[in-house]
Design goal:
By secondary structure, the chain is α+β, with helices and mostly antiparallel strands. It has one domain (20-76). Helices cover 12% and strands 20% of the residues. It is built from 1 helix and 3 strands, in the order βββα.
Length: 81
């Protein structure tokens, strides 16, 4: 018998196990990046075609490459936090 764990219980919140990609946001977007760089969020991070996050180009590229590992560190700097 299988148990129906939620996504967060399996450690998958904010991540996707399939295809990750990035696309630019509308130039008029006023969102800010969550990595701490204080710049405008210029890209969306997509998981299987669904928008999961947004941030500066560097932050989103790291998320596409590493997935949820970026979120498990403080500001994507590699420091545990």
């Amino acid at each position: 018998m299988t148990t129906n764990n939620t996504l967060a219980e399996r450690g998958g919140a904010g991540s996707v196990y399939g295809q990750r990609s990035m696309v630019p946001v509308d130039p008029r977007s006023r969102g800010r990046c969550g990595c701490g760089c204080r710049t405008r969020a210029t890209h969306y991070g997509l998981g299987d075609g669904i928008g999961l996050m947004m941030g500066c180009e560097f932050y989103v590229r790291r998320w596409v490459r590493d997935g949820v590992a970026v979120y498990r560190t403080r500001g994507g700097t590699g420091e545990e936090g």
